[in-house]
Each structure stands twice: as structure tokens, then as C-alpha cells.
Amino acid sequence: MSYKNFPMVPRVIFGRGSFNQLSDILTPKRLSINAPFIFLVDDVFKSNSWLTSRIPLSYDDKIIYISAAEEPKTDQIDMLVEEIILNSKERPSGIIGIGGGTLLDIAKAVSIMLTNEGNAEEYQGWDLVKNEAIYHVGIPTISGTGAEVSRTTVLTGPERKLGINSDFTPFDQVVLDSELTKDVPKDQWFYTGMDCYIHCVESLQGTYLNAFSESYGNMALELCKEIFLGNELTNTQAQEKLMMASWHGGMSIVYSQVGVAHAMSYGLSYLLGTKHGIGNCIVFDHLEEFYPEGVKLFKEMKTKHDISLPKGLCTDLTDKELDIMIDVALSLVPLWENALGKNWKKTITRKKLKSLYQKM
Ligand code: NAD
Ligand code: ZN
């Protein structure tokens, strides 16, 4: 047996208001006055001076606002990298991503592509990155994806939706300031929070489970129950706990895998552009046969928070379109293997997936 030797985020600062220490964190990392820090910021904050006025800009440092309306694309990364190279006197000192999973993934991918030749799509897969990325910092403003700790950056390319999974992908520094999540709209809070919950269920029910993943998965699952089903927490406590649930949920899948909901949700996302959090919820709602306990609790959480999920997404799809989704889902072999074991193909046929998609 050969075990995987994974890197982790080497530095993390946790605490409400810790965002104010960003200047202290970045200053020692500046390579020269000509090597700027580039802040990639969710454009939801564009007119939010509460946050943007605290971004420490010096010399040629720049903020680039990016919309999170769509999930990151490989050509978007290539264009950003080109823009940064053309507009910087020297290679940047660092890339700082401020936002949800979308901005965190963009920051990771840009920092990799600044030091690796070619286009982002060439690196979708496992361990294809050759050179160390430039210094990159992740600052989540919504909790759940675990993108702040993970070893991947999920990108949609011309061929597929697949992560750049590599030892150079994880952030060098993460800032966990739960205050940054205070204005997340309720539905989005639920969808992204459920991404974390689903990570836990899929990891804990998976065949790849081991004590490393289990311990993180259990911690995150307990936190999710407290946050989404309990009545005791103040807003601040709930925000802090969800931030840690996201972290632990992400740690849990570093050493295992996700499962059925993620595989099928990637299909929805590829064909229809359905975003990750809500897509996972739409799929997970129909997965009682795979995750009976998990789906039961999920439905309780949905009711408690008065969330109604879109229906009929796949009703009018042609066979050809359904086939595209099925192909994307089936290509994610490790996810199926984790969910159902080596013989997953006995349960998961094209017909089975079609009938599941048609319920959504
Ligand atoms: P997101 O980044 O797509 O943001 C969702 C919405 O919330 C956006 O409209 C955004 O503008 C808004 N938002 C974010 N912070 C806010 C705040 N503080 N106040 C108000 N609005 C705010 O959401 P997400 O669910 O965190 O990320 C989804 C993405 O993460 C997908 O692209 C998915 O592929 C990726 N993902 C990556 C990993 C990984 O390990 N790399 C894991 C899971 C998901
Ligand atoms: Zn996820």
C-alpha cells in the first residue's frame, strides 16, 4: 500500500476582525515595489466600502473585481493571467482571493497559471502542475465549500468540469474572519452551507473512509446539525461555527472523496450552468436510496429554513442533453467508487442516472 502525502494550508488566522491584520500578513511577502499584490474580489463587494476600504493597497497593488454569477472557466483564468502579466512590471508578489468558492478557486488557478506555461485546461486533472504557484491567500466571505483548505480548484473547460488537483493548489495563507460572511443572503447561506453538509455525508458514507477523514467529517457534521437544526446559537456563533464546519468538511474530503450528489451535480452544472451549492441540494434531495439518514436530515433542515428548491430542471431536456449530463457524471470514477465501491457500475447504469435526472 502506498499512502498519499498531502500538503496542508501552512498558515491560518482565525477571528472576527482578523481581516484588519492583512497588511501585517502581506508586507513580509512583498518581493519588490514592482511586484504587486493582486486582490481578486467578488464584485458583490464593489460598492461595499466596509470591506474594500480595508484592503491594504501599496505601490502597484490592484483590486480586480470579478463576478461570481458563473462558476470559474479555464478561459477566464487564461484571460486574467494575461491581464495581470501585461499590467505588472514584475511577476506579482501574491494573489489574494476574497469571496466564496468561486473567487477562492479563481485565485488558486491564477496563482498556478502565473508560473506554469500554456493554458489552464491543460492542467485539469491530477498532479499535472509542474512549477510551484506564486504566493496565494484565501479569504472566504461565505462558508461551506471547503475551497479554503482543499487541494483543488474546480474549473469548467471546453471538455469538462474538473479540478486542477495538485500539491501547489492549496493556499499559503488563509484568513478566517466570520464577520465577512454577515451579509450573505439566506438562500445562498443555505446552499453553500449544505455543500459542507453533503461533503460530510458523502465522505462519512463512502468506501474510502479512514480515521483521518472520519474525525474531520464527524466534527463538521456535528457543527452542521448545531447550525442548521439547533436553536441556541447567536448569529456570530453560527457564522463562526459554519466557517469551521467548512474547514473540517474540506479536510475530511482531502483524504477521501465526495460521492453521488457531487457526481450528478457536476453534470447539471456542465450542461445547465447550475451552481455548485444549489445543484448539490437539488440532486441530494432525490438520493434517499443512497444516503437515507443524510437525506432525511437534509429535508428537515430545508423545512426549518423554509427553503424551496427549483423543480423540473430536466423535464424538457432532450435525450442528447441528458446523455451529456450522464457522460459528465459517469466520468467521475473516483466519486462513484467512493460512494458505492469497486462494483459501482452494477448499480449506476445510464438508465438509472437518466431516471434520477428526470426527477430533478
Ligand atoms: P460563490 O462563490 O459562487 O458565491 C455565491 C454567491 O454568494 C455569489 O452571488 C456571491 O457574490 C455571493 N456572496 C459571497 N460572499 C458574500 C457575502 N459575504 N455577502 C453577500 N453575498 C456574498 O459560492 P460558493 O458556494 O462559496 O462557491 C461555489 C464554487 O465553489 C463553485 O464554483 C464550486 O465549483 C466551487 N467549489 C470548490 C471547491 C474546492 O475544493 N475548490 C469545493 C466546493 C465547491
Ligand atoms: Zn462540494
Topology:
Elements (H helix, E strand, L loop, with lengths): L10 E4 L7 H5 L10 E6 L6 H4 L9 E5 L7 H14 L6 E6 L1 H13 L11 E2 L9 E5 L13 E3 L4 E5 L7 E4 L9 H19 L6 H19 L5 H20 L5 H13 L3 H9 L7 H13 L14 H12 L2 H8 L3 H4 L2 H9 L2
Parallel strand pairs: 1-9, 2-3, 2-4, 4-6, 5-8, 6-9
Antiparallel strand pairs: 7-8
Bound molecules: nicotinamide-adenine-dinucleotide and zinc ion (ZN).
Nicotinamide-adenine-dinucleotide (NAD) binds next to helix 4, helix 5 and helix 9.
GO molecular function: alcohol dehydrogenase (NAD+) activity; metal ion binding
Pfam families: ADH_Fe_C (PF25137), Fe-ADH (PF00465)
Keywords: Oxidoreductase
Give a written overview of the molecule.
The chain is an alpha/beta fold. The protein folds into 2 domains: 11-181, Rossmann fold (3-Layer(aba) Sandwich), CATH 3.40.50; 186-358, Dehydroquinate synthase-like - alpha domain (Dehydroquinate synthase-like, alpha domain). The chain contains 14 helices and 9 strands. The protein has helices at residues 22-26, 49-52, 74-87, 101-113, 186-204, 211-229, 235-254, 260-272, 276-284, 292-304, 319-330, 333-340, 344-347, 350-358; strands at residues 11-14, 37-42, 62-66, 94-99, 125-126, 136-140, 154-156, 161-165, 173-176. The protein has a 6-stranded parallel β-sheet, covered by helices on one side. Strands 5-8-7 form a 3-stranded mixed β-sheet. Strand 2 (37-42), helix 2 (49-52) and strand 3 form a beta-alpha-beta unit. Helix 5 (186-204) packs antiparallel against helix 6 (211-229) and helix 8 packs across helix 9. The longest helix is centred in the last third of the chain and has 20 residues, at 235-254. The site of nicotinamide-adenine-dinucleotide has 31 residues, from helix 4, helix 5 and helix 9. The site of zinc ion has 6 residues, from helix 5 and helix 9.
